[in-house]
Design a protein that fits this description.
This protein is mainly alpha-helical. The protein has a domain at about 95-210. The chain contains 9 helices and 2 strands; from the N terminus they run H-H-E-E-H-H-H-H-H-H-H. It has helices at about 5-15, 20-25, 45-60, 65-75, 80-90, 105-110, 125-135, 145-170, 175-210, and strands at about 35, 40. The radius of gyration is 21 Å and the shape is elongated. The relative contact order is 0.09. Keywords: DNA-binding. InterPro entries: DNA-bd_dom_put_sf (IPR009061), MerR-type_HTH_dom (IPR000551), MerR_fam (IPR047057).
Length: about 210
Amino acid sequence: MGLSVKISELSTLAGVNVATIKFYIREQLLPAGELVKPNQAEYDDSHVRRLRLVRALLEVGGVPIATARDVLSVVDSTESIFRALGVAQKSVSPVIDQTAISPASLKSVDAVLTGWAIEPHNPGRLAAAQVFSAFTEDDGSTGVSESWYAAYAKAARDVAVADMAEVDRRPDRASKVEMVIMGTVLGDVLFAAFRRAAGESVAAGAQQAQC
C-alpha cells in the first residue's frame, strides 16, 4: 500500500514546513492533497517526490517560481523527454540575444562542437560563444589554446552521456522526466562544484611536483 499521510507528516518526511507546502500548493507547484474530510487532505509518495523536485528548482537552481511552474507542467504532461530537456535547460539558462554575439565567436564554437546535434538557439551554444567573445582580442586572437576548449567540450559531452544513462535507468516516463529536470538543474551545480574541487587538487599536485 502506498504512502497516505496528513500535511504535518508530509512536512516531516520532506523536510519542508507546512506553511511552505501550502504556499507551493497555492502557486500550483505542488498538487493539492486528496480531500478526505472537509478540512483534511492526505498526501502520497508523489507529493514527496514533487517537493524534492520543487526544492531543487527553487533552492538549488535558483529558478523563479513562474519558470518552475512551467518546468513542472512538463512533468504532468505527455511531452517527450527531449522536450523536457529543452524546457529544463531554458529554465537554468540566461536569455541571450544571438544578434549580440559575433559571427566569428559562433563559428569558433561550432568548430569545437562539430558533429553535435544541436539547434542554433541552443542556450549552451550561445553561452559558449559569449565566453569565446570574452577571450577574443581586437586582432582576433584568443590567447587560449584550442585544446582547452576541446577539453571542456569533451568533459561536457561525457557528463551528458552519463545524464542520459541515468535517465534510461528510470522505470517510467514521469520518473525519467523528473531525472531530466533534476539532472539539468542539480547537474550544473554539481559540475561546477567538482570542477572547483578538482582545481584545488590539481593545483596542489602541481605545487608538490615543483618542491
